[in-house]
Amino acid sequence: YTEKQLHQTACWENVNHRQARVALSFDFPFYGHYLRQITIATGGFIFTGDITHRMLTTTQYIAPLMANFDPSYSKESTVQYLDNGEVFVVQWEHVRIPGKESVGGFTFQVALYKTGTITFSYRDIPLSVDVISSAEHPVKAGLSDAFMVMSPSSQSADLPRQMIYEYHRVEIDVTKITNYSAVEFTPLPTCLLHDSCELCLSASQTSGCSWCHVLQRCSDGMDRHRQEWLDYACAEESQGATFPDVKTDSSTKSVGFANTGLIAGLASALVLLLALILVSLYISYHPSAVSPLYLIQRRKSYWPSLKFQKQESGYTEVEGGGHEKDSIVEAGPC
Length: 334
Description:
Blueprint: H1 3-9, E1 13-14, E2 19-30, E3 33-41, E4 45-47, E5 61-66, E6 78-83, E7 87-95, E8 106-113, E9 118-124, E10 140-150, E11 162-171, E12 181-187, H2 197-202, E13 210-212, E14 217-219, H3 226-231, H4 234-237, H5 260-273, E15 277-282, E16 328-330
Antiparallel strand pairs: 1-6, 2-3, 3-4, 4-5, 5-10, 6-7, 7-8, 8-9, 9-12, 10-11, 11-16, 12-15, 13-14
Main location: membrane
GO cellular component, one term: membrane
Keywords: Glycoprotein, Membrane, Signal, Transmembrane, Transmembrane helix
């Protein structure tokens, strides 16, 4: 694509708040699930979950560079997005970090392609990312997805609680993020791709898949449909399933999903069985890298600037001492 072709089919829009819910013009496949809405955050990431909760920075994100960016510092700071029907691009331009404003602005972007490919592109990285403090906001780059389930009731709680569990994460070495560098993620086939029992159980490009006749769905049990997989006893229906299942009988209610060893097992199994993301990292110090940097090198007339008013962050989710919560987090109101 070229800059001219993109602007013929779509216009750039500004993000006016710390978070902006945006509808995509196409179905974007993410971990085998097709997304039509995402949430853009000024903190350098996209939230991909359906339910907005207190832990946006912990699970279900696409983060080219997550940090405590403050677009209100300068009128030159903007967060904009473009959708031309084939690719959805978000660009953070001249955004600065509180307390580090003098080092200059960061300019980078993420592109979500209709094929499922994701690219991160970096133009201006004035400060080594590994020295940015995470005391006020998590600092990381990569992908994460999670599922939400109802935890079993206990004597201390009258009603079951909704719990969010991160089942996979891809992390980028932040020391590799430099000026004019790029990262590309290529999706692998997932069990959810198969729409028949025969394909589900015989396909060579996926493994660990089981067919649930009640739901008419192929899965390994580790995806956003986890609750349905449990509710309809799909794991019991699938004889000889190789994926580990989370039991919810009375003997396990006391520990449930909070068991750290179990979560570690789920994560390990997913790395082996869930066809997720094949990461190919390409670091280039040339502006013509294979990434949508052409969008960064754009004409000023196409990009209206936007002033941001200072306001409290609505999504910073850091525990005391600057440490993030574990991968098991409870959903709650914003």
